[in-house]
C-alpha cells in the first residue's frame, strides 16, 4: 500500500462532516451510502446499525507507526455509527487486547497491507480492493451511471484491479493503462475470466486524449495533465499523491473525487460485516 504521511491524515477527524457534505454535492450520496453500495448492501446499507465492536490496532513493523493514522481510521468508523476503540498495545499485543476486549472487527496496517478482519466470520477486506470498489461506485454516482461509458483506469495494482472489476460490473467500457504492460495484461486476463473485456492502452497521452472519465489509481504526480482536462472530464483519484497536474485541479474540482482514507476505510467497514 502507498505509505501515507502525517499531513495526509492529520485533519481527517476534524473535517469529516465537511467532507461528507462535499461528497453529497458531487455524487448525490453520502460516504455511508457510497460505501454501502460498493459493499453490495444497496443504497442505505442494511448493516449500517450493526453493533459489532471495532478495534484499530497500531502496527510498528516496517517503517513504523504514522502519527494520526489510527486516530483517523477510528474517526471514520465512528462517523459511520460504529463503536470503535484504538488499542493501547501495538502489534500482536494489540490483537490480543482487542479480542480479549470483545472486538469483533480488527483494522490494522503495515507497509504492505491494510486489512479489516472479522474475527467471528473470518471475512477479510483488503484496503486496495475496497478502495477501488468504493471509488468506482462514487464515480458511477458522479457520472449519473456508467452503462456504455468509456472509463480509463490508470494503474493496474490492487486498487486498479478492484476498480476495474467494479466498473465493468457497473456497465462501463473499461480501458487500462499501467507503466508496466504486464500488469495491464494480468488485469485484463482477470476480468476476462469474469466475462468482461478490457481495452489495454499502451500510450498514456493518447489514452488521455480519447477518454473523458478517469479512475487514477497510480501513486504518482502529474499523471493527468491540464491540457487533457475538458468540461466533460470526471475523475476519481484514490492514488496518493493526487495525480492531477496542479494547474488543472481547479478546472475539475467539482468533478473530482479524492481523499487519503475516507472512502476506502468506509467500504472496508461495510464489506467486512458480510459473510
The chain-level structural class is alpha/beta
- The total count of strands amounts to 11
End-to-end gap: 25 Å
Strand order of the largest sheet: 8-7-6-9-10-11
Which sequence of SSEs, written as H and E, runs from N to C? HHHEHEHEEEHEHEHEHEEHEH
Tally the helices. Answer: 11
Give average pLDDT, whole number. Answer: 93
Percent in helix: 40-55%
How much of the sequence lies in strands comes to 15-25%
Output the radius of gyration. 18 Å
Shape descriptor: globular
In the predicted model, the low-confidence regions spanning at least 5 consecutive residues are none
Largest sheet: 6 strands, parallel
Structure description:
The chain has helices at 6-9, 12-27, 31-38, 69-79, 91-100, 127-142, 158-169, 181-193, 204-210, 246-252, 262-272, and strands at residues 53-57, 83-86, 105-109, 114-118, 124-126, 150-154, 173-177, 199-200, 213-216, 234-236, 256-257. The chain has 275 residues and is an alpha/beta fold. The protein has a 6-stranded parallel sheet with strand order 8-7-6-9-10-11, with helices on both faces. Strands 2-1-3-4-5 form a 5-stranded mixed sheet, with helices on both faces. The longest helix has 16 residues, at 12-27. The radius of gyration is 18 Å and the shape is globular. The two termini are 25 Å apart. The model has no long low-confidence stretch (mean pLDDT 93).
